[in-house]
């Protein structure tokens, strides 16, 4: 009888230990650690013929699985084995798996169909000398920017921007897509408001769309974003006003001052 | 097919030894047979103890854990910006031995100085705009204000010192890494001898001169190592403030250089181009200025003498801010903005 009590005691003690999972093992166990989402590099995100997409996570024994239809990948999705040729617009999603570690979050990249070819683009305000990109054509060159705002594919501004686009002919446009960066650590905020006007004669403009973008909250990750403004109008001239955030919120070091905004591409979609 | 290989690997890890298991796992080199995760590369690989130094946050809270040093008694001394207890003193097992300090709201840089066998600490406080020298138990012996008379500062608020380093003769240097980016050279009495650096993208200037360290590994040519954190570069200067050279570490926001034996260790606050902000890791550089291990990140690879971009591969570290390496080569990691967690200890394998 006495022996039995002792045995029970031992089992209880060891039971406790297993409950406090992290305390049993002095060292961190592999299954408690997750992989980082795969890094994606695309040759171009606006497809005029073909784009090349590479995914990587240089960690031993990692497998990357992906989808190209916007759904979440799992282990039954095709395995990534090398660069992918992308010919159709859409959302590609990648997730990394490991025999012992937790799988990663999903990283995604969106490919866009190239829009109506713009005949001429001009900017009514001055190009900012610090972040001029490659001049105003940066906005219509079918090149999306990287996470690095100084890669030459971004134009940065600390004031409102007005862009005028002339189409080769009167085109029916369904929407305007504008790419921007959100990186509050670098004092780069989303534009506050974007307005689109259309004109047939470059004189009388009609407002056809407007969107206000929510300001970042504390702790938001750096992200490359797009805003789509539905328009559904025919027109030869488009005027787009992109307004910067005039007061950085209280949680940020730059509180009260006006914010920078960065734009990489404007697409007028058929 | 693939899930078959995965379950095979899992099984072989559960098996006790065996040649096949061993070779299978040694190719992975990230896991050992106990399933303890192993991080790092080449000869610098570590097991991770996340629970080291955990305390009751109601009694001994931390905010950001900014920096760690080891004192002459072998104790681990950690500086946090929590003014209930700015300095926590642990033994190497993680047991709290002492705590002090309530007046360092911007407590950031922590450096040990030894004078005639006695330990002193240099604390930089970017909110007080001061550098404070204390005894090891917290008695203030010297306070240095913003050097307004240099003409480099319009008002004291522009001065936000982040780090100090001390020479054998008692001279010390202050890096103004959150302020106007100057490096200030003082003698042991606190008299200003020299000012160099400053904000800018020239070779001799800095963006975010966050950390500084006296490097006397080459006894004939001692120098200063200074991090330009935002620029992902380590810069070498002479003790007179003359720019010598730059060592780029692409993608790595290196906080401060810490010399242990012949190598330099860094906490990397974050990966430059990661999607998640909490993308930090550690970095170890040998005496030839080559990166040899990046615990928590990609393996360092050189192509044509250029280091490939480094970035986090596993979600382990959040924002590492400083490292301290003890005589067993164990690393203690202090983290900024990590949800008020206590330091992490790494044991070399």
The oligomeric state of the chains shown is heterodimer
Total count of strands of chain A: 14
- Across the major sheet of chain B, the strand order is 1-2-28-27-26
Question: What is Rg of chain B?
Answer: 21 Å
**Uncertain segments of chain A:** 1-23
Low-confidence stretches of chain B: 1-29
Helix tally of chain B?
A: 2
Portion in beta strands of chain A: 35-45%
Fourth CATH level, the homologous superfamily of the largest domain in chain B: TolB, C-terminal domain
* Overall number of domains of chain B: 2
Overall CATH class of the largest domain in chain A: Mainly Beta
- What share of residues are in beta strands of chain B? 35-45%
Kindly, what is the distance between the CA atoms of the first and last residues of chain A, rounded to a whole number of angstroms? 85 Å
| Number of spatially distinct domains of chain A | 2
- Mean pLDDT of chain A, rounded to whole units? 88
Helix content class of chain A: under 10%
**Strand/helix succession of chain B:** HHEEEEEEEEEEEEEEEEEEEEEEEEEEEE
State the total count of DSSP E strands of chain B: 28
The major beta sheet of chain A can be summarized as: 7 strands, antiparallel
Order of helices and strands of chain A: HHEEEEEEEEEEEEEE
Signal peptide (chain B): 1-28
Keywords (chain B): Glycoprotein, Signal
Protein name (chain B): Tat (Twin-arginine translocation) pathway signal sequence
InterPro entries (chain B): 6-blade_b-propeller_TolB-like, TAT_signal
């Amino acid at each position: 009888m006495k022996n039995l009590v002792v045995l029970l005691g031992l089992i209880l003690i060891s039971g406790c230990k297993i409950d406090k999972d992290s305390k049993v093992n002095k060292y961190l166990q592999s299954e408690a650690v997750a992989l980082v989402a795969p890094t994606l590099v695309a040759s171009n995100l606006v497809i005029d013929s073909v784009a090349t997409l590479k995914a990587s996570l240089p960690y031993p024994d990692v497998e990357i699985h992906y989808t190209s239809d916007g759904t979440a990948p799992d282990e039954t999705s095709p395995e990534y084995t090398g660069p992918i040729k992308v010919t159709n617009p859409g959302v590609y999603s990648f997730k990394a798996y490991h025999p012992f570690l937790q799988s990663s979050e999903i990283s995604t990249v969106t490919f866009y169909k190239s829009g109506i070819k713009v005949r001429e683009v001009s900017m009514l305000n001055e190009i900012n000398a610090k972040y001029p990109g490659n001049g105003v054509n940066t906005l219509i060159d079918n090149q999306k920017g990287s996470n690095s705002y100084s890669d030459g594919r971004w134009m940065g501004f600390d004031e409102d921007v007005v862009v005028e686009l002339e189409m080769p002919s009167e085109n029916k446009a369904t929407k305007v897509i504008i790419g921007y960066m959100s990186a509050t650590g670098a004092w780069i905020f989303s534009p506050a408001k974007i307005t689109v006007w259309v004109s047939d004669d470059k004189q009388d403009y009609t407002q056809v769309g407007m969107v206000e973008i929510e300001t970042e909250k504390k702790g938001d990750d750096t992200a490359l974003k797009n805003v789509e403004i539905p328009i559904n109008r025919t027109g030869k001239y488009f005027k787009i006003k992109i307004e910067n955030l005039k007061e950085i919120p209280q949680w940020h070091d730059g509180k009260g001052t006006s914010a920078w905004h960065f734009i990489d591409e404007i697409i007028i979609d058929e | 097919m693939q899930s078959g290989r995965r379950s095979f690997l899992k099984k072989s890890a559960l098996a006790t030894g065996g040649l096949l298991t061993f070779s299978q796992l040694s190719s992975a080199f990230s896991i050992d047979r106990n399933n303890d995760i192993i991080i790092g590369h080449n000869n610098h690989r570590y097991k991770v103890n996340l629970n080291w130094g955990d305390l009751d946050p109601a009694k001994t809270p931390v905010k950001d854990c900014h920096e760690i040093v080891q004192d002459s008694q072998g104790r681990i001394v950690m500086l946090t910006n929590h003014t209930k207890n700015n300095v926590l003193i642990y033994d190497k097992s993680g047991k709290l031995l002492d705590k002090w300090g309530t007046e360092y709201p911007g407590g950031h840089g922590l450096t040990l100085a030894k004078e005639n066998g006695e330990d002193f600490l240099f604390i930089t406080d970017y909110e007080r705009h001061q550098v404070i020298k204390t005894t090891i138990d917290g008695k203030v012996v010297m306070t240095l204000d913003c050097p307004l008379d240099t003409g480099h500062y319009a008002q004291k608020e522009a001065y936000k010192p982040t780090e100090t380093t001390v020479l054998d003769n008692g001279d010390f240097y202050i890096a103004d890494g959150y302020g106007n980016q100057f490096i200030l050279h003082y003698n042991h009495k606190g008299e200003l001898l020299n000012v160099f650096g400053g904000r800018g993208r020239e070779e001799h200037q800095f963006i975010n001169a966050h950390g500084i360290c006296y490097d006397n590994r080459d006894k004939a040519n001692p120098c200063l190592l200074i991090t330009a954190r935002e620029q992902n570069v380590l810069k070498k200067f002479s003790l007179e403030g003359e720019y010598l050279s730059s060592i780029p570490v692409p993608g790595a926001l290196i906080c401060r250089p810490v010399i242990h034996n012949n190598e330099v260790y860094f906490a990397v606050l974050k990966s430059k181009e990661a999607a998640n902000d909490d993308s930090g890791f550690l970095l170890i550089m040998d005496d030839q200025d080559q990166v040899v291990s990046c615990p928590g990140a990609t393996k360092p690879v050189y192509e044509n003498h250029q280091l490939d971009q480094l970035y986090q591969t596993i979600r382990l570290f959040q924002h590492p801010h400083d490292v301290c390496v003890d005589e067993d080569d164990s690393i203690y990691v202090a983290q900024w903005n990590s949800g008020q967690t206590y330091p992490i200890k790494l044991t070399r394998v």
